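Fold this sequence, please.
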Amino acid sequence: MTTRTLVILRHAKTVQSDELVDLDRPLTERGHADAGMAGAWLSSHGYRPDLVLCSPARRTRQTWHGIAIALERNDAPDVRYEPAIYTGGVSEVLGLVRSVPDEYARVLLVGHNPTLSTLTATLAPDASRDSDGLRTCGLAVHEVDGDWTNAGPGTARLVTSHTARA
């Protein structure tokens, strides 16, 4: 049976501003540095994605860009910017994961809380995790046995987690 890897990543630290629309908030200097550290961690642990599902928000796109630079790979993964990661809840985001073609063995999902923390808890309800959920630039690595359509509540064991800090 094929095992697939889903890496769930909350975006890095962002600028807090009442003058910007939420969708347009950028990363802070620390956020950019943390994104690079997340990419280095993914690379060193063998979690280079084949497909990236990313929210279209500025902060998630910038997080992905920092990771991509740090991955140091010649073959770039496919990247899809999915509005449902920004606007949807757990069921919509899980639906995106379940619709991933089986040609992709490793998927990186870059998005927002509380949806991502709830998703990781839904996929592996018995796993120990931080009581605050995923922190900024926090990663949760799950494994799914079989096809992506098998991903659902209680079906994706939590292999490891990490919070990237520069």
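The CA atoms of residues 116 and 139 lie 10 Å apart. The first helix runs from residue 29 to 44.
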